[in-house]
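Dear colleagues,

As part of the handover before I leave the project, I'm documenting each prediction I ran so the next person doesn't have to rerun anything. This entry is a single chain, and its sequence is reproduced below.
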Amino acid sequence: MGYRFTDLTDACQDDWRAYIEHDFVCGLGDGTLAQDAFRHYLQQDYLFLIHFARAYALAAYKSRTLTDLRQAHAGLKAILDVELDLHVSYCREWGIDETTLLRLPEARATMAYTRYVLDTGNRGDLLDLHVALAPCLVGYGEIAGWLNAQPFTVRGTANPYDAWIAMYESEEFQDAMRAELTWLDARLAEVTPARFAELTQVFRDATRLEIDFWRMGLDGTL
């Protein structure tokens, strides 16, 4: 019997839960997160999206089938043509204009995670790259579901971060997450135990770097 994505999260359960249930996430859920912390996170997330687009371009280069090539192209196009514009608009609602975004210094936590993803993709194959990206794409979808299951989570206008939760619980994002899980499960089903151990380390490293990204938001560090 082959491996599945849940085997990765099970193997890294402590780090995965620390990421999904981070204080930053809890603050988004109950609305108590400091707004300056959220603004700092939003600005760095803009820079992250740019590198996320680069990762999809790398995925296209690494693709060996037309199906994978089209998937990578669709992901790159979605970020460049839709997500970045939406992010800029959302930042504007928080008092961050596009000129500010274009002049942002990159925080060390942003550099660490994005460069890790790109380095992993460069030295490995397409599966390595997808596993390195999974804490973001799959993790944010799971975070939205986890928040909605918590008694402390506040929804609606009483929570300034309700729109953030709504973004990742949306059918569009959840569909993208499920498509990614289907792709990962199909590839993981074919790997050997030794290869799975390598991928587990990639997933653990990427998850820890996502934890650092939350911490960067809380601390406001560069």
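The mean pLDDT is 95. The chain has one domain: 5-219.

All the best with the project,
I.
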